[in-house]
From TrEMBL:
Region (Disordered): 210-259, 354-402
Location(s) in or outside the cell: Endoplasmic reticulum lumen
Protein name per Swiss-Prot or TrEMBL: Calreticulin
Signal peptide: 1-18
Organism: Basidiobolus ranarum
Length: 422
């Protein structure tokens, strides 16, 4: 249902020149082409879900992480192996950190062909890695390109959103050696591949034979030889007694001690003396190390080209709940934009409203739970007071026996004998 809806919506806008190498909307057949890694036995499990809030319960279903503090490794082959030579390369997908992620990744890797996907793990070679990564205050959008077995991160910082809503990430690499990174279809970074990544050896390097001349003067200023410290400058104190202060009339030297006026800043004190500096007439400017052509530099106009055959998730998440959806790999930027309009932009405002409704319902539920707990606590207190009153009443109703002193017979006899003697 979900896939047919999206494809039907796009039929009117799909361009004939666009070639789609991968498109995943996570319909009922998604598990048929995604391959879980068997390298570790305790990898986290994925499931398809729209989450707790959504614009459409079917269209917004995506691949969700479900277990906390787990690694995740899942991959899928592209429709066919392809090279982006002389073509734009577009990788696009949405990420929804519904769990308000504290530490974890939300990125995708593009793998070369010929990978045993059942043995895929974090050490498997990849062409590029793209997407958000958040851990506490540290957050970035990874754009890592592999060249000759080495991974090269982008040198330009790109910050991802940190809310719980769905966000769209798009990476575009062009044959003219330029790139763009879009978030929610808005350009966040753009530039030259060779400027923002260290993909090639530098064109030049510092001449190892060049040395700064011994007589090179790179000190811009010197001490003024005419400047002298004023006589008596060191005798100027930073604080002086307040000349306007007067001894209080009720001050008693015997009880209060000898009176001293309070100290104030000395207006004549201008701080520690420093010798004046003047421009150095011998100054030649900063010495710049001469550079020579780098013999290891090799121009490569195909630095943007990759042979790709698979996509993969290789993630660590402390708190699970991230939802991935609408993954697209194509050579047509316009098609990717249209796909985003129908699968992402169309539902943005509806999802925001759904989030507000969900939060309000959660707030009401928490208030009801707190009220219930408070009522239960009140009932317990009432029951305890009732039990206490009942116990007191029971003690008051216990009959008290009158104790009558009993005089033994022998005692009576002794009394009578004493009386007779008297």
């Amino acid at each position: 249902m979900k896939a047919s809806f999206i494809l039907g919506s796009l039929m009117a806008v799909t361009t004939t020149s666009a070639e789609v190498f991968f498109k995943e909307t996570f319909d009922d057949n998604w598990a048929n082409h995604w391959i879980p890694s068997s390298v570790k036995s305790n990898l986290g499990m994925f499931e398809v879900s729209a989450g707790n809030f959504y614009a459409d319960p079917e269209v917004n279903k995506g691949l969700q992480t479900t277990e906390d503090a787990r690694f995740y490794a899942l991959s899928a082959p592209l429709n066919n192996t392809f090279s982006n030579k002389d073509k734009d390369f577009v990788l696009q997908f949405s990420v929804k950190h519904e769990q308000n992620i504290d530490c974890g990744g939300g990125y995708i890797k593009v793998l070369p062909p010929g990978i045993d996907l059942e043995k895929f793990d974090g050490e498997t070679e990849y062409n590029m890695m793209f997407g958000p990564d958040i851990c506490g205050p540290n957050r970035k959008v990874h754009v890592i390109l592999n060249r000759n077995g080495s991974n090269h991160p982008i040198k330009k910082p790109i910050l991802p959103p940190t809310d719980q809503l769905t966000h769209l990430y798009t990476l575009i690499i062009r044959p003219d050696l330029t790139y763009s990174v879009l978030i929610d279809n808005q350009e966040e970074a753009t530039g030259e591949l060779l400027e923002d990544w260290d993909l090639l050896a530098p064109k030049t390097l510092k001449d190892p034979e060049a040395m700064k001349p011994d007589d090179w003067v790179d000190e811009a200023t010197i001490v003024d030889p005419e400047d002298k410290k004023p006589e008596g400058y060191d005798d100027i104190q930073p604080l002086i007694p307040d000349p306007e202060a007067k001894k209080p009339e009720d001050w008693d030297n015997e009880d209060d001690g000898e009176w001293e006026p309070p100290m104030i800043n000395n207006p004549e004190y201008t701080g520690p003396w420093e010798v004046n500096r003047i421009p150095n007439p011998e100054y030649k400017g900063p010495w710049i190390h001469p550079e020579i052509p780098n013999p290891e530099f090799k121009e490569d106009k195909n630095i943007y080209v990759y042979e790709s055959g698979n996509l993969a998730f290789d993630l660590w998440q402390v708190k699970s709940g991230t939802i991935f959806d609408n993954i697209l790999v194509t050579d047509d930027v316009a098609y990717a934009k249209e796909f985003a309009e129908h699968t992402f932009e169309k539902y943005q405002e509806l999802e925001k409203q759904a989030k507000e409704d969900f939060d309000e319902e959660e707030r009401r539920r928490e208030e009801e739970e707190e009220a219930k707990l408070a009522a239960e606590a009140d009932m317990e207190e009432i029951d305890e007071e009732a039990d206490s009153r009942q116990e007191s009443q029971s003690l008051e109703e216990v009959p008290i026996e009158t104790v009558v002193p009993v005089v033994k017979e022998s005692s009576k006899e002794k009394v009578e004998v004493i009386r007779d003697e008297l």
